[in-house]
Amino acid sequence: MVSHDWSESTTSDCANVDILIVGAGPAGLMAACCAAQYTRSIRIIDLKESRTRTGHGDGFQSRTLEILDSFGLAQDILKQSTPDVEGSYWTSKKGCGHIQRVGIEEAGNGHNSRFPKALLNQGATEQILLDYLCGKHQIFVERSTLAQTLHIRDVADAAFPVSVGILHVTDNDNQRSKGRATVNARYLVACDGAHSWTREQLNVPTEGDPSGSTWGVFDIVPISDFPDIRRSCAIHSEGVGSIMTIPRENRMVRFYTHLHDGVEKTKVDDSSGVPHELVDRAARTMKPYTLTCKHCDWWSLYRVGRRLTTKYRPHDRVFLVGDAAHSHSPLGGQGMNVSMQDSYNLVWKLGAVLSGLFDNAIFDTYEEERRPVAERLMRLDAKLVEAYENGSTRSDKGVAETREDYSGFMSGIELIYSPNKLVSHGGSSSSASARHVKLGKRIDSVPVTTHCDGTRTQLARYLSMNGSWRLFVFSGDLRQQERMDLLTRFAEAFMKCPSLAKLNQTSFGNSKSSIIESILIHSSPTTAFNLLDLPDMFHPFDEELGWDYWKVFTDDKEHTTDVSHAYETYGIDEAGPCCLILCRPDQHVAWIGDSEDVAGLDEHFSRFVCK
Ligand SMILES: Cc1cc2nc3c(=O)[nH]c(=O)nc-3n(C[C@H](O)[C@H](O)[C@H](O)COP(=O)(O)OP(=O)(O)OC[C@H]3O[C@@H](n4cnc5c(N)ncnc54)[C@H](O)[C@@H]3O)c2cc1C
């Protein structure tokens, strides 16, 4: 196999790097995790001297857990987190002053995801990503390091056109310097938060309204007789106020409280460490139930505002990611999730272009795909804030209905990228169909059986983020000779196509996996034929490791008791044409066709593979 390694440098203090990531919050750390699959020529810097210790984001949507699972990290999150199973809604009748429960609903089962919603503080999440980066890839965040100057050379042949002047600081407040240096990068990934330094350097305006009402937020160990203290709650007490609560790890609960009449920070900060003013306001809203606390982990006051960048790629070599591109209130529990998802969308494209194999025109798809997500997020946020502030009785739609309307979006699972350079329009002359698979949507995982040893497993286990595109081949029952012939014909046509064969035999820098991995899902018993009798593309050979046995699976209904089956789930007719589904490295479906349409598959890649 040919291995593309474009890196000229591999040390973290190198002045010339492929990718410089500014900011080591959730977006920056996720960007580094993705980039590490392609290159070791990465630097990631952050002004802060340590990761987030307390507070900030705490909700994981199902899609974010799927993404973390593609690095093998979801279980680490789930082990520490609190499940978010039920949400309840409370309101008081005017004049009565006492709240009553008006409904309990499931928090959402993740919309066909293997993962539920889960709650864990942002700092713990950052630690899991840091451990992965340092343990698996020896990538370390350079702390107390401020990006201070930005200069981009517009010389077409400059290898490292982005120059960032960095300052090593000893003290974040007065920025006393321990030394300066310059980092030259091929690409700058700006994950520098809501007040993005990069956005400011490049004079990128934002849209939206940054000013809004004030809310208080605090993480406490509550002492309360409120019956739903371990459920997520939206509570509105007419004439008193609105609060939202979220159960957390270590007996903690996160409270958000709307400060409709404003409050001075100095009044809250009474040096006890507990924001009594905020806790008292929440307690008044929760009457007749009581609320006090002895331990507060973190509290803050913030203004609800919405801002969306006008450009996600303000320069050919610079990308705005996460809060740097969009910011809004925390009420939907989306910011950390969407920020990590931005990185997941962008960085595999960067890796593929850096390899010299893919055209940089694919970068347009970053904004094409992620801006609509942020726009929808702004609409959701405006509706949620209004619903919370006005209470479910007065707003057009209450919190419960708004959450219900947006539940698929909030889970991250229902997201569909529109046709673009990387996602086919569909509608080809192909006779195969996967009725329940949508172009542009991430593919559902299904239980399958590994042909080599009969293990029942989730298909997603084999879809790790390593830069590979996955071509799923649904051959049907290979005990039928004509279906085996169909598969053999497909494999021959694929390998005879020079561009596809090259992608099948080429890997990226850090990975042994090929750019196109073929995965066969047949519907015969595992004993029906010998795996090595299948065409070579389904058991690639490595001099050191021998054959790869984990590219062939069966969806053999007769021998399992599972309710969910691949052919049924995807809506593929076993006896019909042999169906092909192509997924991008981020698991979104790019192209669907049949095994006779190798030319169509080739045409899809020809739209972005360098000649
Ligand atoms: C109270 C609160 C509750 C929230 N709750 C949720 C929730 O439940 N779910 C959810 O998904 N999200 C939630 N969020 C939002 C979430 O915290 C953010 O969306 C998330 O942190 C954004 O990640 P990011 O990496 O884009 O930016 P950040 O986390 O802001 O990271 C940016 C980093 O860039 C660094 N930086 C900035 N400028 C420079 C520079 N010039 N040089 C070097 N470094 C620099 C900063 O030090 C910082 O570490 C909440 C936020 C708050 C405040």
TrEMBL record:
Domain called Phenol hydroxylase-like C-terminal dimerisation: residue spans: 417-610
UniProt-recorded Gene Ontology molecular function terms: FAD binding; oxidoreductase activity, acting on paired donors, with incorporation or reduction of molecular oxygen, NAD(P)H as one donor, and incorporation of one atom of oxygen
Record-linked InterPro entries: FAD-bd (IPR002938), FAD/NAD-bd_sf (IPR036188), Phe_hydrox_C_dim_dom (IPR012941), PHOX_C_sf (IPR038220), RIFMO-like (IPR050641), Thioredoxin-like_sf (IPR036249)
Alphabetical list of Gene3D superfamilies matching this protein: 3.40.30.20, D-Amino Acid Oxidase, subunit A, domain 2, FAD/NAD(P)-binding domain
Pfam families linked: FAD_binding_3, Phe_hydrox_dim
Domain FAD-binding: 17-379
UniProt keyword terms in alphabetical order: FAD, Flavoprotein, Oxidoreductase
Record family assignment: Belongs to the PheA/TfdB FAD monooxygenase family.
Protein name: FAD binding domain-domain-containing protein
Organism of origin: Aspergillus taichungensis
Organism taxonomic ancestry: Eukaryota, Fungi, Dikarya, Ascomycota, Pezizomycotina
